[in-house]
Amino acid sequence: MKSKVLKRIIAGVAVSVISLSIVGCGGSKDDKEKDNSGKKAEITFALWDQAQAPAMEKIASEFTKENPNIKVKIEVTPWGEYWTKLETGAQADKLPDVITYNASNIEKYVDAGMIEDLTDTLKDVDLNQFIEPVKNIYTFDEKLYALPRDWDTICLAYNKKILETAGAEVPTNWDELVTATTKVKEANIEGVTPFYFGVANETYTGTWNFIAQAGGSVLDTSKNQSGYHNPANKDAVQFMYDLVQKYKVIPTPSEAEGWPVAIMSEGKSAFAYIGTYALNTLKDSPIADQLGVALLPKGKTDTRALVHGTGTAVSAKSENKEAALEFVKFLTTDIANKILAEDAGVLPAKINMADLYYESLSQFPELKEVIEDANKNGQMHPRAVATGWEQKEIEIMTEVYNGTISVDDGINKVTEEVDAILQRK
């Protein structure tokens, strides 16, 4: 199976291969070493988030103070190019030494044998200090392949001023969501959408949460078929369809324009589902004093939201593997995670750092409840070896929420076409 997946990864890359320098993809043979051997080494650390780069530089500097023979080169590639660049590296057998992954993309690399098992490296680290749902994302056959670094979940953002004008309250369940959004609609406030929601293309930050609330999941546990075989998924889709087409409190996909976080920051919506990773944007909004956050409205289960987080992995083919593993081990320390919380503006996956994160977003006192609920009840972000299934789901659900096809036809189409993609594996 590994060779098949590797061939697919290689085949998916454009013929024109991006040339990678030897240092940029793992260092030269002269640098190859064990971290305490006394020889110098430079390892590369790949990530996509430019906003986190200064914090990562600071963490790298602290690491080098303790390991003066190892330098860490931070390589930031924009999100739109990041995964293509990794696939190009896979083709050349030259991945960066240390790599940032997400749930959607790591499994095929693990399956192809390209990622180092971290279990032995971290055997002396108390991994109970790291959030369980994110550990589960990066655990395969009871082996950990990426260290959970930072994590997030989804919350309900709301505009206090708009709710006061409409006489609406923050909803705590699906029925109350209908009531609150309907009141905002009936208030007919100029330029305001009751609930701004990318009902087709917002998956992790949107529709997948309704599915989890209904007791379903996007993929089934065996990962070889769509979760839309579960009747709970249909319940969620029907509810979202009604919000769009029956109650008309959410724009159709063809009407929706813009990022929900930006819409909330501009005071153009009463409600939106947003990732906690975007709360710094709300904090810096000119109408920040009007904005609040809350738990997502409850559906039919205790699960309200999905949980996702980035993981830090090591290339199995790294020529500086011992140095890279030493760096990942350093990322488990309080020193590294304190920098992550204070300088990167993200929630570290190390549980004891949460208070620093809350302090940085103290204007949202409900945030702690959101995070603690997600840690307890959150559903893990789906993952699969196959790719393209999420895009197919979005394509079909866009037709449903635009009213082009029925809910039943959409469910049948998703199960059939997503199953076919997953079973190509």
Uncertain spans = 1-36
Number of alpha- plus pi-helical segments: 17
Distance between the termini: 8 Å
Radius of gyration from CA coordinates? 22 Å
Global outline = globular
Helix coverage percent: 40-55%
What's the average pLDDT?
Answer: 90
Number of strands: 12
> Could you say which structural class the secondary elements and strand pairing correspond to?
alpha/beta
Instruction: Characterize the biggest β-sheet.
Output: 10 strands, mixed
Residue share in β-strands: 5-15%
Oligomer: single chain
The helix/strand series, from N terminus to C terminus, equals HEHEHEHHEEEHHEHHHEHEEHHEHHEHH
Description:
- The protein is of the alpha/beta class and 425 residues long.
- It has 17 helices and twelve strands.
- It has helices at 2-11, 53-66, 79-91, 103-111, 132-137, 160-166, 174-187, 203-213, 231-246, 260-265, 279-283, 321-330, 334-343, 354-360, 367-377, 389-401, 407-422; strands spanning 41-47, 70-76, 98-101, 139-140, 143-144, 147-159, 193-196, 269-275, 291-294, 306-314, 347-348, 379-380.
- Strands 1, 2, 3, 6, 7, 8, 9, 10, 11 and 12 form a ten-stranded mixed sheet that branches. It has a two-stranded antiparallel sheet with strand order 4-5.
- The longest helix has 16 residues, at 231-246.
- The termini are close together.
